[in-house]
Structure formats: structure tokens, C-alpha cells
Amino acid sequence: MPHERHPFDIATDLAPTGPDSWVARTSDAYWNMVGPFGGLVTALLFKAALSHPAREGEPVALTVNFCAPVAKGEMHITALPARTNRSTQHWTMTMLQEGECVATASAMFGKRPETFSDLTLLPPDVPPFEDLERMPWAGAGWIERFDLRFAQGAPFWAGSTKGASSRSTLWIASDPPRPLDFVGLAALTDIFFGRIIHIRQQMVPFGTVSLTSYFHATEDDLKSLGPSPVLGTAEARIFDRGFHDQSAQLWSEGGRLLATSHQLVYFRDPA
Question: Where are the alpha helices (DSSP H) in 103-210?
């Protein structure tokens, strides 16, 4: 029996249409309430640059700006190197639907020499993945593709009784299991629910407007992890006039800081 491909790999397929352009299709497996899971859009734009034959160096930073809702159907993606320096390389990416821009992105790759290394931050102290229960979810779409186990700050539908807080800490595992790579890690930087629904303890219309992710792991670091769960934490500092900030961290089970991210989220009060 041929090996069945993981739904995420199918959802992030890119079909070349030129030397710097590809076409992708939205995936029902990673569909959100009104569009694709934002992490999938992030992954597609990032993969276009990461897989480009002209790419040099390892991923260091990625910024995605979500310009408009993404409809079901084809997405046309371009990735162009903006500048290549001795130690860094910069890329610009765009995603179009029906000739209209729905997302833009920039990525930076770099050479990582052996240098001084230190970690001034400790990972959250939480129970292991196996000791926590999977977050319940009665809907369909992208949430079913991940096993989310909250140690702190579960959403209101999961029976959180500790009051409103903008901070959440949770284990994240792909379902079905999938070894972590950079495309998957890029998607995970946008896996956290908008902090507005945690602080309000109700469903509120929201969406990421801009997301910047920094990668602190190398390809070898990720290969050593396999499909093991990742520990994530996210919080916000300000909710004001339709926007809130959001910062997140992603850790390996062994306490390796894999990525950090910062984003701006649009929200509005429910009707």
C-alpha cells in the first residue's frame, strides 16, 4: 500500500507556473470559519521562498500581511529574491486571487555560524503532554488537524473556570502526527486563537492583520524532534480601538526555543 501523504503536505502543495511563481489551492482540511487557517497562508508564502532554488541560508525571519479574505479556490504565489548579502538573503512574496492581492510577505534567510550562545528565558513549567486532555471541539476544519492540550488559559468552550486572561500555555501536536519542519513551524506561529476571545470569554470576530515570526532553530534542530509535541505560549498586552497585539513562543519538549512571534490582530465587538 503506498504511503498516504499527510493532509498538511497536500494542503501546502505548490505547482510551478513559472521560475518564480506557483499556484496552490485552499484545503477543506485546514479551513477556518470564513477562510483558510492563517497558518496555512503563512506556510504557503513561506514555502515559496524556502523551496526556491535560489534560496541561500536557513530561515531567520518571516513577516506576513493578511490584506484581504482568502476565498476557496486557487491562490497564485510569487517569490522573488530582493537582495543577497554575504550573510543574509531577503525575499518578497505575494499571494493573488482573481488578480487581486490577498497577502504579502517578506522573508529573511541567513548563515548561522558557531558563535556565543545563551538563553535568558526559561520554558513554561507545565504538566507533560500525556497528562493533559485534548481540547474539545465540535466543529470541523483546521482545529481538528491539531491535538491542543491546554495547561493554562483554555478557551471558554473548553470549560475554563479560572477567569479571563490573555495568556495561554498549551501543547500542540499535529493530527495525524507529522515530523516538524520549517514549513510546519511557520504555520504553528499562527496557531494561537486571538487573545480577544480569551479575555472576553466569548466568540468575537477577529483576524490576524500582520504576523512576524523569528526562527531560532536550525534544520538539524527540527529533524531531531520528529513528530513530538511542541509547547506554545501566547499573550497580549493591549486591546484598543479594534486592534490588539499578540506575542507567542514555541518550545520543544526538551526546552529548546524554536520560534517567537509577534502579531497585530483586528477585532470588533459582536453584533
Answer: 182-188, 195-200
pTM reported for the whole predicted model: 0.95
DSSP for residue 132: S
Least Cα distance to 106 among 42, 152, 165 occurs for 42
**215 in Cβ contact with 60 (< 8 Å):** yes
C-alpha 260/C-alpha 252 separation (Å) is: 12
Written as one letter, the residue type at 1 is M
- Mean per-residue pLDDT, 85-89: 96
Report how far residue 235's alpha carbon sits from residue 214's, in angstroms, rounded to the nearest whole number: 17
Is 211 within 8 Å of 233 (Cβ atoms)?
no
Q: Using the 8-state DSSP alphabet, how is residue 31 labeled?
A: B
Which letter does DSSP use for residue 77 in this model?
A: E
Measured between its terminal Cα atoms, the distance across the chain in Å is 51
Chain-centre distance of CA 164, in angstroms? 24
Assign 261 to helix, strand or coil.
strand
Query: For residue range 7-50, what is the model confidence (pLDDT) as tens digits?
Result: 999 999 999 999 999 999 999 999 998 899 999 999 999 999 99
Phi, psi at 89, each rounded to 5°:
-135, 135
Q: How many CB atoms lie within 10 A of CB 14?
A: 16
The Cα 234–Cα 236 span in angstroms is 7
Number of Cβ within a 10 Å radius of residue 12: 22
Specify the length of the chain in residues: 271
Pairwise CA distance, residues 20 & 93, whole Å: 10
Helices marked H in the chain: 7-11, 38-50, 182-188, 195-200, 219-223
Looking only at the bridges linking them, the beta strands covering 230-235 and 243-251 are antiparallel
